[in-house]
Known about the structure:
Oligomer: single chain
Bound molecules: calcium ion
Shape: globular
Number of helices: 7
Amino acid sequence: xxxxxxxxxxxxxxxxxxxxxxxxxxxxxxxxxxxxxxxxxxxxxxxxxxxxxxxxxxxxxxxxxxxxxxxxxxxxxxxxxxxxxxxxxxxxxxxxxxxxxxxxxxxxxxxxxxxxxxxxxxxxxxxxxxxxxxxxxxxxxxxxxxxxxxxxxxxxxxxxxxxxxxxxxxxxxxxxxxxxxxxxxxxxxxxxxxxxxxxxxxxxxxxxxxxxxxxxxxxxxxxxxxxxxxxxxxxxxxxxxxxxxxxxxxxxxxxxxxxxxxxxxxxxxxxxxxxxxxxxxxxxxxxxxxxxxxxxxxxxxxxxxxxxxxxxxxxxxxxxxxxxxxxxxxxxxxxxxx
Length: 338
Ligand SMILES: [Ca+2]
Ligand SMILES: [Ca+2]
């Protein structure tokens, strides 16, 4: 019996050992949580959670609710509960109907004010309100425990591939986006728009691009062009990487013949041709794009090192403690945010 218990324990710890995810998420026994302190509209919040490998959190169980309430200090946050397909029909993102979730409404809620409220907030007292989806609020992303561990690129996303020549990982996005959205997507994935620092890296980009024939690229008529991480810094009249260096200083500044041509006087964003040569592209036009990721950024944590990573707003600690009915909590101030 004792031996059996030991085996079970060892297996348990072996399993726990393999639980790894980005450190900006807090580990709990039901999954990983990240409070997003920058308010966003509900659509943007949902997208960002999705890109980070999670979902917009909803208080579906008492445990979920209490962990969510521990994670924020505002008066309310967006939940994943919304009526996105038909008015008044509230579901979580995973499709759980509101009716199946134990909940209590805040006073005078839901009121569907101006017939314009289709999203639901969790308030700091644990009650719900219906609110407009387009008014930015903070929110929590949640990732269930899963057997999918992070790969050599430090992400569970299998589309990031490690390249030994540069010690970086790359992901080619075939769904075309404009520069701003492409930048957001790479950032949320823990990466950045690819920056070419050498001939060698240009060659890697060319080789990856070649794996995706024109037909694979969706949503762009420019299937031989992809966004990468540089743009025109007008104030200083120079092409600059998104990390602030001139592209010459960054190590690669080979424009294609005839480029930059500033076509229609609106090309201020950096793109690359299949040849690996640079082009100025329209910041508003959708192109495929390359993300680049450093394998150890954002840092990856396991369950052991990352259980006690609660976030509190300094000014609200007292109020928060009152709500929790406790003064003995071990308050840990947030470290650097990645
Ligand atoms: Ca309301
Ligand atoms: Ca051009």
